Protein: NAD(P)H quinone oxidoreductase, PIG3 family
Amino acid sequence: MRAITIREPGDPEVLDWTEVPDPRPAPGEVLIRVAASAVNRADVLQRQGLYPPPPGASEILGLECSGTIVELGADVTGWQVGDEVCALLAGGGYAELVAVPAAQLLPVPDGVGLVASAALPEVACTVWATVVMNAGLRAGEVLLVHGGAGGIGTHAIQVGKALGATVAVTAGSAERLEQCRRLGADILVNYREQDFVAELRERTGGADVVLDNMGASYVDRNLDALATGGRVVIIGFQGGLVGELNIGKLMGKRASIASTALRPQPVSDKGRIVAAVRENLWPLVERGLVRPIIGQTVPLRDAAEAHRLVERGGAFGKVVLTA
Ligand SMILES: NC(=O)c1ccc[n+]([C@@H]2O[C@H](COP(=O)([O-])OP(=O)(O)OC[C@H]3O[C@@H](n4cnc5c(N)ncnc54)[C@H](OP(=O)(O)O)[C@@H]3O)[C@@H](O)[C@H]2O)c1
Structure:
């Protein structure tokens, strides 16, 4: 098969479209002929040599895909050759074929095309695992989504609204905030010009749940923006890894800070998240309340161009790669 490989760690130019051996499905896995994949920030870090794949995972980039099942490994039940699926991957999505544990498969939701469904698994599993399974967002609560215009952010806005929350977002320009508003965001904060703590406190009395992509640089301000009993879930460290936590503020608000990383989790844990997404989130997608937000579609062989786009922050939502 052909796949995108990394010649050496570096800029997008190190990505090559080359011949590599076909993957084989192990017991419990299926082989998918890839229709589309999508770019995640982790792919950029992996390309730069800063985020090696977890042990046993494919060296090829790509944390999600959609496509058609072409072979079943031993002991796979519930799926057939010819089924159209999308899948959460530990790697290997930037290729014509990928082997994936059956526990990480999702059916293509009704009303979403095969290619567009490639934009869903990573954001759906991340947002559901954090905002719902971990932080327990409830109707009537306030959800603050940092980076509302990104892949994760555009999905989190829709999930928050579908669950009956008030959604506040941060983004880096008026244009991106307007796009977030059209997706349903209620409170818009330009992180370059405004103080999200003041905005949240004045307009809501504080956030009940914060989905944070920044890490260290926002740890203190996120606590300030919280309501009593608030929950922060950190999923990224775009603002650094080491910050200072004021325990007095944390205890005073009876608040909690959690964090997670999806990719290194064992198949059994990912399978639990995928099952919850299929049961609870897929019906929201099929009712049109949550849809894939795709800023740009690029041929897989031009993955370097797609990485430049993501690094420039040019797309609203996800960048999809078509095989
Ligand atoms: N832990 C996990 O399992 C997991 C899974 C998936 C993703 N992630 C992480 O989640 C984050 C978002 O992923 P993504 O795929 O959505 O990436 P993305 O599409 O590239 O979005 C990145 C976002 O960061 C925003 N941003 C930049 N500086 C900011 C600031 N000072 N304050 C608030 N927002 C700021 C950008 O906003 P503007 O474009 O408006 O400037 C953009 O919306 C990444 O850090 C990624 O590594 C973690």
Residues 12 and 304 are 5 Å apart (CA to CA). The chain has a mean pLDDT of 97. The first strand starts at residue 2 and ends at 6. Residues 40-42, 122, 126, 146-147, 149-153, 170-172, 176, 191, 213-214, 235-236, 238, 260-262, 310, 313 surround NAP (CB under 6 Å).
